[in-house]
Amino acid sequence: MKRLSSVTIQKNESLSAAIEKIYNSNSRTVVVLNKKKVIGVISEGDIMKTLIYKRSLNISLDKIMNKSFKFLKSKNLSQAKKIFRETGVGLIPIINKNMEIKNYITIVDII
Amino acid sequence: MKILFFTGSRSEWGYIKPIIKLCKHQKIKYNICATNTHVLDSYGLSVNEIKKDGFKVSDEIYMTLDGYNTYSSTKSLGVILMSFLDVVQRVKPDWILLAGDRGETLIASLVAAYTNTPLAHIQAGELSGNIDGQARHAIGKFAHIHFASNNDAANRLKNLGEQSFRIKTVGAPQLDDIRQNYNKFNDVTKILKAYGLDSVSNYSLIIFHPVVEEYSETKKIFKNFIKCVKKTKFEKRFWISPNSDAGSHFIKEIFLNNRNNDDILFDNLPRHQFLTLMKNASAIIGNSSAGIIESPSFKIPTINIGRRQKNRLKAKNVINIEKYSEKKLMLAIKKINSKEFKKSIKNLNNPYGDGYSSKKILEILQKTKVDEKLLKKELTY
User: Does a structural domain hold residue B350?
Assistant: First the structure.
């Protein structure tokens, strides 16, 4: 079981905290939580967009996160492979019925 | 002839696009002024879709102030008043063409009227159940030509004191796209695949916008709505993000905190993907005009909830629920699944037109003489 804390961040944390997580985790993405519930993901691309549009680095995470993120209900690697191929995301959270993160898959897991 | 198109949202772009396409084809000069959610990253920057479709956007105007409450929304209208005026002064169009009933559209109509620029209004004379309806009729008072989508709207314009020569019944131009590309909206699997989703045989398409008059109750109403909708038996529920009206931030926040893993959110869908999801849905649920205007063309049942589309002309495929009630929603779902209902909408005609509006609209604009008779409006009462 992977350490979820390395790829998750609470919605009220700062953008620099999100950047640090991405830098340290090698997954190019962090999953944004409201308590236990997954409410979005932030990728390196989202952070670049924030910089390109010259938005404040104090911006709240829910303003830049992707709310229509991809997720799986179980650790289905072939399905994950399809998602990586079709959408180009770097990490897929595995989520239970109530949208709580239980695990995650990165591209490294399927190479 | 040079036409200045004004558009503030993705849904409205659907009205205007077929006309601009025809302008391009007929080499008629045009400018596009895109504003509000079109230019917002958080709403998907739909201005990029306009460009991708091959149209040049001459002006992109930021107008939307953060806050998403009634005060910030109203203050935003002040921004577009000053900015759009500069565009009109520079472009000096022969016509300003706009569609619908949004606040920023009302402001654009004010600019047209006070600069003595001929103004034509698409989707004129219809009813809406919230402040949009008031905006639509206020636009009607400034517009020099009214493009009504059906006789019901045309008669209302007449009864509101508009001169007959200004009222043209042409249908809703967003149906042109559906008529022209009807068979291109079949492949829902391809779209779902692009979003990393498996194909689904039974899903509902849900669009729920805030209602400005219910701003203080938005949280309560939407919590109740999502609770009711989650009890429906669709395999998946595909949600489309709401517009930027006051209260939209509550809707987004409540959705993210109350959804389950069968609720799939599409933050920003290009129109052809949206229409493909609509064509293949088992039902459309919510309070969007798409459920009233576009859905009859696909003969898809719509369950329209609340006051947002109140009194609007509705085809037989629309079941109306005034209050947000679980019991009523379940009864409506039972009804749309019945053989009788399915049979009753099988040969449905869309009361909003036949899909040939754009041509009619352009012909009328080309033929209309811009003179004192056109520019000096008189009320008939």
Answer: no
Kindly report, residue by residue over B218-265, the tens digit of the pLDDT: 999 999 999 999 988 899 999 999 988 889 999 999 999 999 999 999
B289 HSE (CA, 13 A, CB side) = 25
Instruction: Using CB atoms, pick whichever of B196, B253, B268 lies closest to residue A87.
Output: B196
Same domain, B71 and B147: yes
Q: What is the CATH number of the domain that holds B363?
A: 3.40.50.2000
Contact A87 B194 (CB under 8 A): yes
Lowest mean per-residue pLDDT among A60-64, B40-44, B276-280, B325-329: B40-44
**Chain position carrying tokens 């391809």:** B190
What is the count of structural domains for chain B?
A: 2
Q: What is the DSSP letter of B47?
A: H
**pTM listed for this prediction:** 0.87
Task: Please tell me the class of the A4-110 domain.
Answer: alpha beta
Asked if B61 and B39 count as a contact pair (C-beta separation under 8 A), the reply is: yes
Residue B268 lies in domain: 180-344
Residues B24, B137, single domain; the answer is yes
Of B193, B256, B266, the CB nearest to A86: B193
Which residues in B118-145 are b (16+ Cβ under 10 Å) and which e?
bbbbbbbbbbbbbbbbebbbebbebbbb
User: Are B76 and B162 in a shared domain?
Assistant: yes
Which residues of chain A are within 8 Å of residue B261 when distances are taken between CB atoms? 71, 73, 95-99
* Partners of residue B248 in chain A, C-beta under 8 Å: none
Average pLDDT over every residue of B100-114: 96
Q: What is the pLDDT of residues B278-334, one digit of tens each?
A: 999 999 999 999 999 999 999 999 999 999 998 889 999 999 998 878 899 899 999
Instruction: Flag whether residue A87 sits within 8 Å of chain B, measured between CB atoms.
Output: yes
Which of A99, A100, A107 would you mutate first to test chain B, the one with the most B CBs within 10 A? A99
| Residue that is written with structure tokens 């829910």 in the block | A62
